[in-house]
């Protein structure tokens, strides 16, 4: 038997192709990487150094006169017990209520608007999409100025409330907490000693549970009004990419509209829902321009937020170390809440036993 062997052909190795593709990719992305490094990476590292130094804002933060102080700026904010701790705790309380009310409300409103404008039976869907999205592209400064007029003591909002017999508050000058106001209306004007005497970050637990102030409530309404249109477009895009076969099968099985929404549509929107909640969470914790243009923390620091406090500490009080420390604490809070939210909304894997049982058990019903 004569064995014949085919001559080996020269071939390009996969590693060589991959290395060439990787080199091309780095060449294409190099300009963006350089720009991000210059205008994002280096400033972040400089701010991190400022947060652990005693830089006063004069000269270079890397000059020989600037000394390393370690965690002093952070400890002054978190455990110092002075005015810095109280202001930081107040800003966190205000912003926490803001996030707690804005993020779920704007998500629900934007999802409802998306379902509404995505209906085929609705006429003029393009007009309604544009109308709902228009506040999102309007300048936040212009919207804030408009809100100051609408929610003034003699503004249009109080005028409308007077038509139904309600005496509207002096919105942007009322520091009363909404929860405290509701409790006071039923005769619970003061809290128990366990809540009023114990403090966290310089703020009593009774004040932590007081709810947003009347002034902050106006900003909450404004945030929902200006951001729901943007998130509506994300939900509309997701709804248009959903397959209608599952919904049609559910209709044939007798499911009503509410059941189809909760059991079929909403689970398929989980990736978009995570995106909307994450963007809403980041934006709500970084609220600044409305506060700067509107109240600057007044009345009684009930609209003070960490972002505005960071600006005030740095540019007004010249305490640049504390201002940078506030920014990094806020960054840690946002990252932690985002990771928690991601773990909460992730898809659960089907247990192995259930998958094996589903594979072994025969399908129910007779053959057709």
From TrEMBL:
Gene3D superfamilies given in the database record: MetI-like
Membrane topology note: Multi-pass membrane protein
Subcellular location: Cell membrane
Ranges that cross the membrane: 21-50, 96-118, 130-153, 214-239, 269-288, 324-345
InterPro entries: ABC_transporter_permease (IPR051393), MetI-like (IPR000515), MetI-like_sf (IPR035906)
Alphabetized UniProt keyword annotations: Cell membrane, Membrane, Transmembrane, Transmembrane helix, Transport
Source species, domain of life: Bacteria
Residue span, ABC transmembrane type-1 domain: 92-341
Main location: membrane
Family: Belongs to the binding-protein-dependent transport system permease family.
Name the record gives this protein: Carbohydrate ABC transporter permease
Organism: Kineococcus gynurae
Phylogenetic lineage: Bacteria, Bacillati, Actinomycetota, Actinomycetes, Kineosporiales
């Amino acid at each position: 038997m004569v064995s014949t062997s085919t001559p080996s052909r020269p071939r390009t190795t996969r590693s060589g192709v991959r290395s060439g593709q990787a080199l091309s990719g780095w060449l294409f992305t190099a300009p963006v990487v350089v720009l991000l490094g210059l205008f994002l990476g280096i400033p972040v590292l400089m701010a991190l150094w400022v947060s652990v130094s005693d830089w006063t804002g004069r000269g270079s933060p890397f000059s020989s006169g600037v000394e390393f102080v370690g965690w002093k700026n952070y400890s002054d904010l978190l455990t110092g017990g002075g005015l810095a701790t109280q202001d930081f705790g107040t800003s966190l309380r205000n912003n926490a209520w803001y996030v707690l009310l804005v993020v779920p409300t704007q998500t629900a409103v934007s999802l409802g608007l998306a379902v509404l404008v995505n209906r085929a039976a609705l006429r003029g869907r393009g007009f309604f999409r544009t109308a709902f999205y228009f506040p999102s592209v309007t300048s936040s400064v212009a919207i804030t100025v408009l809100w100051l007029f609408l929610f003034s003591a003699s503004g249009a909002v109080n005028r409308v409330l007077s038509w139904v017999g309600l005496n509207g508050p002096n919105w942007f000058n009322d520091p009363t907490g909404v929860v405290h106001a509701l409790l006071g209306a039923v005769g619970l004007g003061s809290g128990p000693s366990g809540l009023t005497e114990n403090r966290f970050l310089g703020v009593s637990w009774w004040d932590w549970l007081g709810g947003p102030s009347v002034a902050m409530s106006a900003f909450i309404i404004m945030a929902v009004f200006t951001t729901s249109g943007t998130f509506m477009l994300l939900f509309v895009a997701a709804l248009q990419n959903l397959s209608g076969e599952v919904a049609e099968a559910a209709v044939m099985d007798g499911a009503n509209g509410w059941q189809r929404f909760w059991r079929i549509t909403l689970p398929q929107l989980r990736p978009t829902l995570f995106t909307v909640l994450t963007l809403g969470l980041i934006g709500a914790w970084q609220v600044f321009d409305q506060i700067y243009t509107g109240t600057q923390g007044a009345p009684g620091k009930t609209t003070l937020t960490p972002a505005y406090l960071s600006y005030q500490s740095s540019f007004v009080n010249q305490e640049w170390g504390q201002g940078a420390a506030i920014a990094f604490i806020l960054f840690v809070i946002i990252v932690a809440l985002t990771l928690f939210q991601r773990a909460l909304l992730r898809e659960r894997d089907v247990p192995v036993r259930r998958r094996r049982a589903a594979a072994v058990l025969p399908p129910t019903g007779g053959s057709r």
